[in-house]
Design goal:
- The protein is an all-alpha fold and 251 residues long.
- It contains 10 helices and no strands.
- The protein has helices at residues 12-25, 27-49, 60-64, 68-84, 91-98, 102-136, 145-173, 176-193, 206-210, 224-248.
- Helix 6 runs antiparallel to helix 10, helix 7 crosses helix 8 (176-193) and helix 7 (145-173) runs parallel beside helix 10.
- The two termini are 19 Å apart.
């Protein structure tokens, strides 16, 4: 599929428009966004059905947003695929022929990735909260509107940061397979292994830090917003590394 590319030397907006066209016309990317919503709400509902509201450690907020653990995989797949598609069939060469300013192109690509994930994340967060409350019933009575709002906003920001983290790593490695081969096992294995090790270096892992926002109470060294800030630092570091790779290596 061919995309209309902006001419060399054009401003940021036309480049962003071109990148947005790429994203909305690739079915795999649209499907990944849909998977973010479906996986998160479905697993949040299942978690609510299986919850034990009488347990001492029961957290209604985390139960309502439990599906984030699965939705984040779709968000990572979205960010990875959006960048990896440029490294197939000489796509990046064609893109850079139209937009020789590599930094401008990568900034537009990151923005085109972040914006739809943020919007879908807000919708997903709202649905997860509504479904969680409905499934939990009386067990959700302790959940305040402030906590719910924090969870919805946090859901959107967290998904966006994880997608950007994946985008940066993909640009650095120039391989979607390698990126998914690193990030998915990390989330499914490493983070679960160190899951309850609060007060240690585990608190500063990108997913563990960001997911503090989904807890009504927390025992670690990071709070809800400082945890998201740590995840943002991980995403920023990955994007900087990816931008360096795009600028320094041959297309």
């Amino acid at each position: 599929m061919e995309f209309a590319a902006p001419k060399a030397g054009t401003a940021f907006t036309p480049v962003l428009r071109s990148e947005w066209i790429k994203i909305r016309t690739l079915r795999s990317l649209v499907g990944a966004l849909g998977a973010v919503l479906l996986a998160t709400t479905a697993f949040s509902a299942l978690a609510g059905l299986d919850s034990d509201g009488d347990g001492a450690d029961f957290d209604p907020l985390f139960s309502a947003f439990f599906g984030v653990n699965f939705g984040q995989i779709a968000a990572i797949a979205f960010g990875t695929t959006a960048v990896a598609s440029e490294f197939h069939g000489g796509g990046l060469r064609a893109t850079l022929a139209a937009v020789p300013h590599r930094g401008r192109w990568f900034a537009a690509k990151a923005t085109a990735i972040a914006a739809p994930v943020l919007v879908v994340g807000l919708v997903t967060g709202g649905l997860s909260l509504a479904v969680g409350r409905a499934v939990l019933g009386a067990e959700a009575d302790g959940l305040t509107w402030r906590e719910g709002l924090r969870g919805v906003v946090g859901c959107a920001v967290y998904f966006m940061l994880m997608a950007l983290l994946a985008a940066g790593v993909t640009a650095l490695l120039r391989s979607g397979v390698a990126t998914l081969g690193i990030l998915i096992p990390f989330l499914l294995i490493v983070s679960f292994v160190v899951g309850d090790m609060s007060g240690s270096v585990a608190d500063f892992l990108p997913d563990k830090a960001g997911q503090v926002i989904f807890h009504a109470t927390w025992d670690g060294s990071l709070g809800p917003w400082s945890g998201l800030a740590v995840t943002a630092l991980w995403a920023a570091a990955a994007l900087l590394a990816g931008a360096w790779s795009v600028r320094r290596r041959d297309a």
